[in-house]
Give the backbone structure.
Amino acid sequence: MLFLGFFIGFLIIHVLVLLIGSLFINPEKLPEKNGFHRFMTLATIDVMLTGMRIHVKVNGAEKLPTQPFVYVSNHLSVFDPMIAMLYLRKHRLAFVSKKENIQIIAAGKFMLASGWTSLDRDNNRAAAKAILTAVENVTSGKNSMGIYPEGKSNLHPEKTKLLPFHHGSFKIAVKSKAPIVVAVIGNTRKVFRQLFTHIDLDIVRVIEYDEYKNLSTGELSDLIYDIMLKNIKF
C-alpha cells in the first residue's frame, strides 16, 4: 500500500509538470533542441508501460544504423509509437502522426517539441509541409522519423495481418535518402484486455538508399509490404 501511495503521488506530480510545461510550448516556434521535452515524453511513456506491466523485447537491434533513419512498421494500437520511441530512444525516434493525436492536451505539445510532425490528411498543402519537416528532421540529424503506412490501427489483425499501404508516406524516405528500418510489432492490442502483456518488437531489415533509389514510391511500398507481411507473427 505504501508503494502504491508513492506511485500515485509521483504520477500526480508528473502529470502536473506536463500540464505546466505544456503551457510554455509554442507549436509555431518549437525549440531547436528537444532534450527536456524528449526526456519528459520518454519518462511519461516509461511510467505508463511500467504501471500497465507491459514487457517489451526488441529483437534485431544490432541491425539499426548509426545515422538517422526512417522507421516503418505495422500499426496495431496507440502503444506502438510509444514502445518504439522508448526502446529505440538512443536513435531519437519521433513520428509523423495525424493531427488529432497532436491535439491531445499537454501530450500533443510535448510530442511536437520532441520532433513529432502533425499530418493533416484533409489539407494537401499542410500534408506536404509535414513531409518536408520530417525530411528536414532526418537530413539535419535531429531525429529519426517513424511512419505507419497503413494510415490507421489494424483493429482485426487476426483476420487481416496488414492493411493496404499509403504509397505517399514513403516520400519521406525517398526525399531524405535515409536508410529504411523495417519493423514488425505484435500483441499491442492485447494491452487493452490484460495487464501483463509480452510484446515483441522485431527489426527485420534495413534497406539502404542505394537499394531503393531507383524504385518509385509505389514499388518501394510494395517491397516493404511483402517484407513486413512475411515477418508478422500472430
